[in-house]
């Protein structure tokens, strides 16, 4: 008895021993009235029912457990809230179901059963904030039947992937809350566009607001701020299984997340434990001019240090001088001298955000000298750059047609080689 008493005292007075429940079995359920929650190992995340300050509607969500400021990272039924304080989360027929006061399903994992074997299924909140459904005797991440990380709301956590899972046919993207008090799907989204050189776009409904630029082996060219931390490691994978961006923390005691706000920003937030608040590490678009999508028209680039901010590439003139003089650069620039397709050369532009890659082709098999030769021999080629800037640069991206949505940086970006007539070199 004395040993048992010591153990009970240790649990009560030593938080490291506190008992958390992170698993829901098929014999169990969570209800709003019971006030029960699931708590992840490590005590970082909590899953349960919540309502925002100004709302009588209820949601099932995940939030940081120990932070003084309640921060939600995932919402299951964001567009189908419970209308009152009666709601139940349970496992039924190998699916997670969220039922309302009339026992009607308002949200479900919606899995079709692949076979009729009766297996015990459990739902589990993992240490990284991923809420998963799995076979009770299969703990392998590859064997998850369903996971919340595949269905993000407005937040990307460490170890989550943003982009395509080609095997599952999923595009994982972020969508803002409608407002700070309303978790329903807002107008702002952040999505990967699948091209030969994939890029992320920040959208306001169907209108593009910002482009990440392609991944250059180290970073997305259009978001250089994201590399300025030693506490994070970044990765962009492109293979037969998928194309996705992910990050992880090299110091697990620090919290960081990427989010799209209802105000129209894509931003990285880090938790400041001393001030007890989230600190905006960077926010994109960074500046109202050069970071906005297509501020300057074709064959022109944006530079915050010039006035006006739009500049023609060497060998190009404003397409409409009158509008250009009125500081409207949307019409862009046109060639001074037509290309001859023999004897043309290149102007090297340093520290550039590469042009939009809609009309680009990629060849990863050779280096810069070969890129130059290939672009010169193709009459339709208008510019080229390295795909990967590491180790002196490898692979080529070639543009045909207009060069759009470019800017330059004081210290970031990379070299872009634009083809111009010999007379304009």
From TrEMBL:
Q: Tell me where in this chain the Bulb-type lectin domain is found.
A: 23-146
Which Gene Ontology BP terms does the record give?
rejection of self pollen
List the Gene Ontology MF annotations in alphabetical order.
Answer: kinase activity
On whether Disulfide bond is a keyword of this UniProt record, the answer is yes
Q: Which PROSITE patterns match?
A: BULB_LECTIN (PS50927), PAN (PS50948)
Q: Which domain of life is it from?
A: Eukaryota
The UniProt keywords, alphabetically, are: Disulfide bond, Glycoprotein, Kinase, Receptor, Self-incompatibility, Signal, Transferase
Q: Where is the Apple domain?
A: 341-421
> Is Ribosomal protein among the key words of this record?
no
**Signal sequence residues:** 1-18
InterPro entries (UniProt xref): Bulb-type_lectin_dom, Bulb-type_lectin_dom_sf, Pan_app, S_locus_glycoprot_dom, SLSG/EP1
What is the stated purpose of this protein? Involved in sporophytic self-incompatibility system (the inability of flowering plants to achieve self-fertilization).
* Name under which the protein is recorded: S-locus receptor kinase
Identify the species of origin. Answer: Brassica oleracea (Wild cabbage)
């Amino acid at each position: 008895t004395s040993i048992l008493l010591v153990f009970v005292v240790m649990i009560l007075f030593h938080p490291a021993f506190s008992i958390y429940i992170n698993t829901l079995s098929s014999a169990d359920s969570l209800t709003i009235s019971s006030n029960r929650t699931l708590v992840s190992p490590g005590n970082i995340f909590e899953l349960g029912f919540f309502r925002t300050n100004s709302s009588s509607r209820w949601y099932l969500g995940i939030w940081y457990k120990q932070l003084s400021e309640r921060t939600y990272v995932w919402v299951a039924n964001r567009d189908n809230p419970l209308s009152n304080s009666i709601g139940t989360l349970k496992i039924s027929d190998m699916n997670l179901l969220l039922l309302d006061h009339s026992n009607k399903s308002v949200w479900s994992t919606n899995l079709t059963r692949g076979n009729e074997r009766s297996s015990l299924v459990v739902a589990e909140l993992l240490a990284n904030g991923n809420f998963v459904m799995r076979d009770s005797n299969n703990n392998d991440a590859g064997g998850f039947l369903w996971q919340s990380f595949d269905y993000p709301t407005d937040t990307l956590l460490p170890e989550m992937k943003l982009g395509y899972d080609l095997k599952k046919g999923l595009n994982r993207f972020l969508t803002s809350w409608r407002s700070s008090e309303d978790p329903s799907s807002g107008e702002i989204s952040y999505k990967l566009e699948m091209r030969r050189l994939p890029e992320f776009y920040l959208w306001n409904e169907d209108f593009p607001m910002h482009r990440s630029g392609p991944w250059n082996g180290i970073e997305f060219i259009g978001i250089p701020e994201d590399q300025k931390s030693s506490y994070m490691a970044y990765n962009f994978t492109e293979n037969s299984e998928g194309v996705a961006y992910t990050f992880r923390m090299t110091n697990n005691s620090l919290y960081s997340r990427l989010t799209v706000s209802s105000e129209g920003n894509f931003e990285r937030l880090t938790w400041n434990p001393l001030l007890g608040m989230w600190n905006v590490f960077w926010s994109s678009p960074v500046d109202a001019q050069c970071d906005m999508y297509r501020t300057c028209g074709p064959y022109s680039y944006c530079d915050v240090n010039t006035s006006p901010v739009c500049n023609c590439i060497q060998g190009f003139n404003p397409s409409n001088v009158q509008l250009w003089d009125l500081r409207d650069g949307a019409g862009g620039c046109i060639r001074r001298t037509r290309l001859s397709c023999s004897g043309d050369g290149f102007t090297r532009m340093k520290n550039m955000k590469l042009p939009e890659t809609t009309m680009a082709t990629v060849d990863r098999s050779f280096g810069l000298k070969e890129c130059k030769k290939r672009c010169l021999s193709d009459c339709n080629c208008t510019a080229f750059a390295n795909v990967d800037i590491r180790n002196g640069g490898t692979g080529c991206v070639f543009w045909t047609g207009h060069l759009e949505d470019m800017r330059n940086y004081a210290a970031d970006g990379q070299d872009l080689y634009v083809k111009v007539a010999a007379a304009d070199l």
